[in-house]
Structure formats: structure tokens, C-alpha cells
Amino acid sequence: EKTMRFSLALIFVMLVLIESKRRTTNPNTEKELKDLNKKDKVKIESEIERLNSEMNKAGTTEHELTRQELIKLEKDEIDTRRRLVIVSKEKGSNSRERAALLHKLGGIMYKLRKYSDVLSISKEILSIHENLDGHDHINTAKALTNVGAVANRLKLKNYCEIVERRALAILISTLGINSKEVMLQKGRMLSYGISEAMVASGLSYSEYQDELEFLDPNEL
Known about the structure:
By secondary structure, the chain is an all-alpha fold. Helices cover 76% and strands 0% of the residues.
């Protein structure tokens, strides 16, 4: 996780430097962003490849859970699932309280390396935010990036790209194309191997739905 955070921070710095250079030479930064020159793109993709190689090496020495850690996590899972049943009855299946507990449960399952369960939980959280906040809200974008992160972990590359492109569109529409959050999202997408991230503008909700409809069911 530390390596991933470092890689995203480094990518962000690179993107900011590139964008700063453009702002001093051409005020039409949105057009410049779409016309990203090959030299910059090659530089970023080369750095991504190097960082991905380092992360893959780091992944081979993953910390093994001790028996005590495993017992505690399994107990926490049972307790959290019990609380979820209660909260669902008292607050409803689409409540923020339930979303918060699901988020906690997802963290537990991630530590237990039950990534398929984490993906299902992340989808539930996304559904809650879509219902409570709407399809174009920043909270929905954050939920989409969480789904994308787990999909990437499970090597569901097409699904990962679809949800990350949808998140990008929301961030652009709510925060602006030159915002820090959009730059970080593009860096995140590049780290997942989405090579067109720098020139992508994201997916509208209807486009997102269409992409999901034609996606191989095995990737959902």
C-alpha cells in the first residue's frame, strides 16, 4: 500500500509539472491536455512500467497474517456482519450508516485477502451512494474508484477501466479538468495500465451503463 501511494504521488508530481509547463505556453490547457505530446506520454508510461515492476516484486513478499491476527480479523468480521443486520433493519439498506459499516467490513475482508468479497461489498457501497447522492456526485466517484481498485487487484481489467473512466467524468464535471483530484485520478488510471488516461474525458452515465451491459459477465 505504501508503494502504491508513493507511485501515485510521483505520477501526480509528473503530471503537475507537465501541466504547469503547458499553462506558461498556451492558455488553452484543456486543448493541450487532449493533445498531450508523445514525449511526455512516453516519459510517464516508462515511469509507470518501472513502478509497476517494483510493486509486483513487493507483492511477492506480502505479510503473512499471524494466528492471532487472523482470529481477531475473523471475530471483527462476525461482529461487523451482526451490526450490519441491525443497522439495515433500523436505518434501511440504503443508509449512510450501512455504507459506513460496509466500508469497515470491506477493510477487514481486504486484510483477509478475500478480494472477491471486497468487490461485492464495494459494489454495494457504490449502489448506496448512487441512490443517496446521485449518479454524478463526488461520493459516487470515490465509491467507483474503490470498485476499480479491487477490480484491478482481481485482474478484471475491462471492468476496472469502465468504472475508473466513469469516476473520471464525475470528477471533471464537479471539480474541473485541471483539478488536483482529476490529475490524481488520471495517475491512478495510468498505474492500472489504462494507457489512454491522459487524453480520456470519462464516460457519461448512459455510456457507463452501455459499457457494463456489453461487458463479459465473468468480469462483473
